[in-house]
Amino acid sequence: MNTGKLTRKQLGAVGEHFASEHLRSLHYEILAQNWRCRTGEIDLIAMDGPLLVFIEVRTRSGTRQFGTPQESVDALKQRKVTETAQYYAHRHQLLDRQQRFDVISVMTDPEGHLQALEHFTNAF
After folding, report:
1. Is 89 exposed, middle or buried (0-12, 13-18, 19+ CB in 10 A)?
2. Residues of the signal sequence (predicted)?
């Protein structure tokens, strides 16, 4: 029986879609999505003018009983994203670019319809 509720993986994909559309509307150039290497994964990598931006997308559906999405980006996650970002910049010869780390918080209803999106620049 399908209740219309998204799986965790589907919810994450929906959140990343909303986040990438948001970034495109701000004229960011999306370089990569779900970029993986041995140190971890980065949800979105983009250029904001001359800035190389690494974006962690956090999506929640329904209530905020477990806190806001951005609150789940703890120190361990920040360290992993930072390490992975350095590997990406090295591998793509972008170490000379100024870097920024953003968090995009997406709230949806259980079916995946956008309720709210917040973009935190220089989040960590």
Report:
1. middle
2. none
pLDDT digits (tens, 9 = 90+) for 47-80: 999 999 999 999 988 765 566 667 778 899 999 9
On whether the pTM is more than 0.85, the answer is yes
Rounded (10°) CA dihedral 33, 37, 40, 42 = -20
Tokens of 99: 């870097």
**DSSP letters along 73-123, please?**
--HHHHHHHHHHHHHHHHHTT-TTS-EEEEEEEEEE-TT--EEEEEEETT-
Q: Where does 8-120 sit in CATH, by number? A: 3.40.1350.10
Backbone angles phi, psi at 9, to 5 degrees: -65, -45
